[in-house]
Amino acid sequence: MPRDIPVANGRLLVCFDPDYCIRDLYFPHIGKENHLSGNHSRTGVWVDGKFSWIGTGWEIDLKYVSDTLVTEVNLYNRELALLLSCHDAVDFHENVLLREISVENMEPRKREIRLFFTNDFDISGNSVGDTGAFDPKTGGVVHYKDDIYFLVNGRTDQMEGLSSFAVGQKEIGSLEGTFRDAEDGVLSGNPIAQGAVDSVVSLSMELEGLSSGKAYFWLSAGNNWEEVRQIDATVKSKRAEVMIARTSDYWRLWIQKENPSLELLPEKVADLYRRSLLILRTQIDWQGGIIAANDSDVIRFNRDTYSYIWPRDGALAANALDQAGYAPLSQKFYRFVADIIQDGGYFLHKYNPDGTLASSWHPWLSKGQTQLPIQEDETALVIWALWHHFVLHRDVEFIKPLYKALIKRAADFMCEYRDAETGLPAPSYDLWEERRGILSFTVGAVFGGITAASLFCRAFGEKDKADYYMKVAAEIRDSASIHLWREDLNRFCRMIYRGDNWQMMVDQTSDASVWGLFAFGLYAADDPRIISTMSDLRKKLWVNTRVGGMARYEGDKYHRVSEDVPGNPWFICTLWMADFLAERAGDETAIRGAVELLEWVTEHALPSGVLAEQVHPLTGLPLSVSPLMWSHATLVATVHRVLWRLEKIKLCPECGLALTRGAARDHWIDTLYADTCDRIYKMCHV
Fold it and tell me: Which one-letter DSSP state was computed for residue 662?
């Protein structure tokens, strides 16, 4: 199930599913320790002797307050004659989830309404050795194991403190869980349990007919009992509603600090741009790791998650953040990857949010031969993105410690890790993590990375090193034109690889990732070969159903639901096509196709603005993990690419200067990068 409305502050992330259940809770690292493991922490209501968990029988609308990370949830139950209006937020400063529930009694008579909140923890990812206990000092319930503590508490606008509570064991013998204790409207008050435990807390209010009241619930996270007590005291002192309001103000200030020319785009695209930045922020750990996704339902698919840092995905996200004006976040990412790069100058498959090596399926041994289990584009794109960061922000002192340790180390590796026969980057795994060879996407990324390293060296006065990197980039471009361009196909191929007899083979599959051939500067978007290639992709990968969108590649089996389409539409692949259309556009009419694809993305987002990885090709519903950080980062980057082109198109007829913001700033970037690319092109022979 999608995670419709994630809320976070960099240390504490809480994810809700479409039934308004809390399913994932990460602390103290975003994406590392999931203390719910996908369990359902429910909200329930008792009134007039009837009980109902939010879900079936409720009309549920999950959104955010505009330009914030505060939820705006409406829950209506016709049978119970109740309307609940909820706001949820993780405080921007304190590690506490805050929830405000406005209950409207839609009957003309006075009624008692009881709200129930379940807490189904698996602390540190398992339920072995957990403890749940009532804390008389705070009047709340504490769950803890080792150095992870949670304290749940609440109040209404009629009374301070919880109305009742219960702690008990779960999933032991016939015991389903303490949540069942709530279904008669009365909790047992059991004060402690250990092992596999859950708890329920309750708030009660009496409402006159056709009136409303408010309840507040909060969950504090810390590393010891005293810390969560202190946070609980802060909430009681400052008041939950005030903390929710200040968090709303904080995120509104955060998202409005920059002012791109969004008025040039449809309003719904501008709204999704801002929402994407906010959702992207929820997936970033305080130590700099940018997590791919935090939707634990995917565990059912392969017993693993997306809660890792792929250096490639993170680099592309950092680049999007840089373009949007959020340099401090991207700087943290670059410091993070500088600390984890291997001594040999490359990144391995993926990493945990604390910088340790994560799980992998890339082998060190294949067919009796040792190999590097890497996706080389991950190394290359970190350097490519870092150069663009430097161009935008010119933060010399930030780059200085990264110059030798990260930039030159990675560039030296890329220059050495080459195929002896073709001169192209040596075989590695593709960005889809399914095949090994010499990929068009990887070649484009490595070209971009080595070019970026050459620019860094020139900026730092190492001309000889800059010339060497430039020479290697030119050789790679020559070789790509010879080996990856296929005259018989009239397009670039996805990959070349060696068969069992060491003969070079060609993978002719049409794959959206060949976007990387122009995205990182290897070729221009108006190169006839790129035009022919992208036209082929549009023809073969567009999903010809009422849903539309671009598939990854022909015959994609991942989460496949229909044999009548090339694959499921992916947001990133659709946005890559928009990038191509924007790059080639010479006037506002020509760029309309790119804007239409941005509108397609908005039409297939969840009502909250969340973007999944994929879309069901027949129903348009989200597939795979949701939200996917990469989808949101790509939306941000594509919006900037479209704006960049629009700003170049909209020139003053009198003076020739840009009529919109941003174009003047980009002029220096264009000139510097184009100058280097021109030098590389002049060194090429094909």
Answer: T
Contacts of 386 (CB under 8 A, 6+ apart): 315, 334, 399, 402, 406, 407, 452
Closest CA relative to residue 536, chosen from 498, 474, 583, 580: 580
Q: Alpha-carbon distance 604 to 580, whole Å?
A: 21
Spatial contact of 357 and 346, defined as CB atoms under 8 Å apart:
no
First to last CA, the chain: 50
Residue pair 15/136 in contact by the 8 Å Cβ criterion: no
pLDDT digits (tens, 9 = 90+) for 640-652: 999 999 988 876 6
Q: Distance (Å, rounded) from C-alpha 102 to C-alpha 267?
A: 30
Place 665 in a pLDDT band, splitting at 50, 70 and 90: very low
Give Dmax over CA atoms of the chain in angstroms: 86
**DSSP structure class, residue 127:** -
Q: Please give the pLDDT value at position 686.
A: 42
Contacts of 193 by beta carbon, 8 Å cutoff, 6+ apart: 131, 132, 133, 167, 168, 169, 178
Q: How many CA atoms lie within 13 A of 496 on its CB side?
A: 20
Q: Which of 202, 42, 194, 37 is nearest to 114 (CA)?
A: 202
For residues 387 and 456, the answer to whether their CB atoms sit within 8 Å is: yes
Burial class from Cβ neighbours inside 10 Å (0-12, 13-18, 19+) for residue 532 reads middle
Give the distance from CA 338 to its chain's centroid: 21
In this structure, how many other beta carbons lie within 10 angstroms of the beta carbon of residue 295? 27
The rounded distance, in Å, linking the Cα atoms of 115 and 117 is 7
Could you read off the pLDDT of 281-312 as tens digits, one per residue?
A: 999 999 999 999 998 888 766 778 999 999 99
For 502, the 3-state DSSP assignment is coil
CA atoms within 13 A on the CB side of 107: 16
In sequence order, the 6+-apart residues with CB closer than 8 A to the CB of 459 are 390
Q: Which of 271, 153, 300 is nearest to 218 (CA)?
A: 153
Nearest-Å Rg of the Cα atoms of the chain is 27
Whole-structure pTM value? 0.95
For 117-148, the pLDDT digits (tens) are: 999 999 999 999 999 999 999 999 999 999 99
Q: Distance (Å, rounded) from C-alpha 301 to C-alpha 435?
A: 20
pLDDT of residue 668: 45
* pLDDT tens digits, 460-492: 999 999 999 999 999 999 999 999 999 999 999
**Helices 592-603 and 629-649, packing angle to 10 deg:** 150
What span, in angstroms and rounded, lies between the C-alpha atoms of 314 and 281? 12
Closest among 498, 496, 528 to 509, alpha carbons compared:
496
pLDDT tens figures, 590-639:
999 999 999 999 999 999 999 999 999 999 999 999 999 999 999 999 99
